[in-house]
Amino acid sequence: MSPLLSLSLAFSLSLFNILSVSGAVTLPLDGLLPNGDFEEAPKPSDLKKTVIVGKHSLPKWEIDGLVEFVSGGPQPGGFFLPVPRGVHAVRLGNEASVSQYVSVKPGSEYALTFGATRTCAQDEVLRISVGPGQSADLGIQTLYSSDGGDTYAWAFQAASKSVKVTFHNPGIQEDPTCGPLLDAVAIKEMLPLKYTPGNLIKNGGFEIGPHVFKNFSTGVLLPAKQKDLISPLPGWIIESMKPVKYVDRKHFFVPSGLAAVELVAGRESAMAQIIRTVPNKFYNLTFTVGDAKNGCHGSMMVEAFAAKDTLKVPYESTSKGGSKTANLKFQATSTRTRITFFSAYYHTKLHDYGHMCGPVLDDVKVVPVK
């Protein structure tokens, strides 16, 4: 072996040892929580039929109250519990909860992605909390997917190195076992946003967003702004009463890049971003609308607002995947301009009227007019 080759090999081994010891190669958190899919079952001795007995009997989780460990499919009494991402899930009875401690970076922002659906009552609520002071009540009475595959995302900022993530049913029903079904929980660190050169919009291609389950996805519902102080879609405000849906290229048609947003609840499903502008200066807003190739059909229309200007963009969907680009020239009236989008109409899938859907929005850009 030549002296030069020996020196090079020694340097490479030293660098590997330094990186291994320092932990400099640690990747951002992105994936299921430990036993986040609940496929690791309690011991048979810790189950009384489906009810989990013992605070620490659900592996990797801590439970409080009446928590059931259930399998998907037909249930006694004529119920059917959908568990589209696996075999098992947990059902939270009256005032019951499941929680887990997660190691995080103080000051960093994270998004939780979880599958949740109601099982009995029309007014079921799922409360998500992370430590003291950060919580949201998520109403799950509206089903956006007829197969029970509704997935939500909720974001938080870590205040310490370890946070307690809790899912709680605050309701009290006549049947104490009635409550939300939770069937998968994942977490993703949301990296700081960077401006794309020449574009005043942050995250205009929606490439930075919550974790998307790989084995099954009907998209990720992003709750309205009043439900979360930190957006699971960085840079954007979900300012309507109903959520919008984050869709990925693996499971849907996306006009460009890896992800887009589907406006699934008509005028109740709006999103916005506030950008810096120069008063009286002209700008061009461009964006792409289309359909997600998910059975959503018919005459669609996306409305865009910028300062005092409005643009209505019609799109005729045959649910085969497609898109068109639109342009709105507007004049700023202040140092801050709100850019807003919503769907003008309500839509459902062609062969599944219980599945709400809508036009897809992608590739949003604002550039100054020269």
From TrEMBL:
Localization terms from the record: Secreted, Cell wall
A Gene Ontology cellular-component term: plant-type cell wall
GO terms for MF: enzyme regulator activity
One of the GO BP terms on file: regulation of cell wall pectin metabolic process
Record key words, sorted: Cell wall, Glycoprotein, Secreted, Signal
Species classification: Eukaryota, Viridiplantae, Streptophyta, Embryophyta, Tracheophyta
Tree of life domain: Eukaryota
Record domain DUF642: where: 31-188, 199-366
Alphabetized InterPro entries for the sequence: DGR2-like_dom (IPR006946), Galactose-bd-like_sf (IPR008979), Pectin_Meth_Modulator (IPR052437)
Endpoints of the signal sequence: 1-23
Organism encoding this protein: Eucalyptus grandis (Flooded gum)
Protein's name in the database: DUF642 domain-containing protein
